[in-house]
Design brief:
The protein has about 575 residues and is an alpha/beta fold. The strands form seven sheets. An eight-stranded mixed beta sheet has the order 4-3-5-2-6-7-1-10. Strands 11-18-17-14-16-15 form a six-stranded parallel beta sheet, sandwiched between helices. A three-stranded antiparallel beta sheet has the order 21-25-26, with helices on one face. The longest helix is centred in the N-terminal third of the chain and has 16 residues.
């Protein structure tokens, strides 16, 4: 059965295999929570089976193991599971799903394996005695050329920073797509947050074992429980919330929340690490079916919990971990017919500490760097510090006018930039022609690049639809990205290390008809700078591009007068 994948999932697979072919390192794929990492893993696994490879897929969570198994079976890939918690000890299948707690000390049972996939790869610790390290060492005793592929939404750890490094188990991010891009393109649900004066004062909390003291913050929340629960309940009533997921710091606090909600006439379930599996399943099934409105948990539902109906995430706990903050907030990112957005109710100053989840930066030893958000004085929406206009109510902040310079450059023609930078989804555009040129460095001492441009018309007139710059003479990730695009444009020929040589070779092959430009390209906004376009994908159809689609008179009429003479000279 063919796997129906989105453009970024296909790109993740393509660029990951390209990295592995051009490098001896181990890649990491970064896709936001709810973005479909399991589909990407299934596509990679299907390729492996087609090449006669045997694989292990490891993760820490039983629900994740069952989700992955369900996806693989749906696409016709039989697999086994090795997990004591699930009561299964399979070892012979070409694909084995391993619960890391059960399998890390018995890798020899799985025999020779070519590749190991790690879901939630941010859990890989560099410590030699960690479970993942022991699993890797055990597998490599039988498979010295074992390759590792990680998948995660948060490629960093609290103490160690980024999980990819030259000396680490994972060496480089092979593909990454942002939360903002997937929200903009309607693949994920928008998040909104309203500020509250009822947050606990986290400046008084002590940090123990890499996070705030759970017992200390639990006591602080319990001391303000009357106010906080009343405020949370009122907000959920006002905004007509149907499925509220609550994160608490401790068990005592969780049951206190349940008791208070029940006094308000609400039905509420509580899940902790000690909850029996049967009761846990009963609560989860009822919540997903929207039969109960409130689900409270303590350190359980941060990963591997898939409930698209979640329309409110209530953070009745604080954390110094940006990854944990992201995982909790990310429970509301999935789309569901019953919601237009997910409301984040933060009572632990987490948004101030970490900022919006689409702008979280990896932790470092310098700390969080202070407040990263502000709230709208009219509607209390929590916003990034440099927001000029509240997107919810339209309030204009005073500092917006202060930032606008009175000496802005005046142009003699209107700009062609979009009025709203983040409101345009990627689109497929027909390609009439492709051209390339050597792009000399603007700064002395820098390296040249190969500029490849795609035009909508076959005569290469006007501005290109989009251009890409191939860093053939660079090293590391820049060259890897260049090689990825080059391989698709130029077949199997390796990318030369000289930009001039690459330029001449590409022109020669185009002129000889050995290669053809793509018939269409997928163009979207650059996530780092939305005012620029970026190339996301390319597609080829059989046959030559259709020259008849270009209307020269229509093109001439669209040009400014200063360009008309250039056009006449061309013809």
């Amino acid at each position: 059965m063919e796997i129906d994948a989105r453009y970024y999932q296909r790109a993740a697979v393509r660029e990951t295999w390209s990295y592995m072919k051009s490098s001896g390192g181990n890649p990491c794929i970064c896709i936001p929570t709810g973005g479909g990492k399991t589909i990407v893993m299934a596509m990679l696994a299907k390729d492996c089976l087609g090449w006669g490879k045997r694989i292990v897929i490891a993760t820490h969570n039983q629900e994740l193991l069952l989700q992955i198994e369900s996806t693989l079976l749906r696409y016709g890939m039989p697999c086994g599971i090795y997990s004591a918690g699930l009561g299964r000890r399979d070892t012979e299948q070409d694909i084995i799903l391993v619960g890391i707690q059960s399998g890390y000390r018995c890798a020899e049972l799985f025999g020779f394996r070519d590749v190991v996939f790690i879901d939630e790869a941010h859990r890989i610790s560099p410590e030699d005695n960690s479970m993942y390290c022991q699993l890797f060492h055990g597998l490599m005793e039988q498979s010295p050329k074992l390759r590792i592929i990680g998948l995660t939404a948060t490629p960093y750890r609290m103490n160690d920073g980024l999980i990819c490094s030259p000396e680490g188990w994972l060496n480089q991010i092979s593909y990454e797509v942002s939360v903002k891009e997937l929200i903009d393109n309607k693949f994920l649900c928008p998040l909104r947050s309203k500020s509250s004066q009822l947050s606990i004062d986290t400046s008084q909390l002590k940090v123990k074992i890499n996070d705030f003291s759970e017992s200390q913050q639990e006591d602080m929340f319990l001391a303000r429980a009357d106010e906080i629960i009343a405020d949370l309940f009122a907000r959920c009533q006002t905004y007509q919330r149907k499925s509220i997921l609550v994160f608490c710091a401790g068990v005592k606090q969780a049951f206190d929340v349940k008791e208070r909600l029940q006094k308000l006439g609400e039905i509420c379930g509580v899940i902790t690490g000690d909850t029996k599996d049967s009761i846990r399943k009963e609560y989860l099934d009822a919540f997903k079916a929207q039969e109960i409105r409130w689900l409270v948990n303590v350190n359980v539902l941060t990963e591997g919990f898939d409930a698209p109906c979640v329309d409110t995430v209530a953070l009745l706990r604080a954390t110094v971990s940006p990854g944990l903050f992201y995982q909790m907030s990310g429970r509301g990112l999935r789309l569901h017919p019953s919601k237009e957005y997910c409301l984040i109710c933060d009572y632990g100053e987490n948004l101030d500490r970490h900022g919006p989840i689409d702008a979280i930066t990896p932790p470092d030893k310098k700390g969080s760097g202070g407040t990263k958000t502000k709230s709208c004085p009219t509607c209390e929406e929590v916003l990034p510090l440099r927001t000029d206009i509240c997107p919810d109510c339209g309030y204009v902040f005073a500092d917006a006018t202060e930032r606008a310079s009175p000496w802005e450059k005046i142009s003699n023609r209107p700009t062609d930039a979009d009025a709203i930078s983040d409101n345009k989804p990627p689109e497929w555009i027909s390609v009439g022609a492709m051209d390339c040129d050597v792009n000399p460095p603007k700064v002395e001492g820098k390296l040249p690049t190969l500029k490849v441009s795609f035009y909508a018309n076959p005569h290469r007139l006007g501005y290109p639809v989009v251009s890409v710059w191939l860093c053939a003479e660079h090293e590391g990730f820049a060259r890897f990205k260049a090689q990825t695009i080059w391989s698709r444009l130029n077949g199997l020929d390796p990318l030369p290390h000289s930009v001039t040589e690459a330029h001449n070779l590409l022109l020669e092959r185009l002129a000889a008809g050995d290669i053809l430009p793509p018939t269409s390209i997928l163009v979207g906004r650059d996530p780092k700078n939305p005012k620029f376009k970026t190339l996301l994908d390319m597609a080829w159809e059989e046959g030559e591009p259709d020259d008849d689609t270009f209307d020269i008179d229509e093109f001439r009429s669209s040009l400014p007068a200063s360009k008309t003479k250039d056009l006449e000279d061309f013809f």
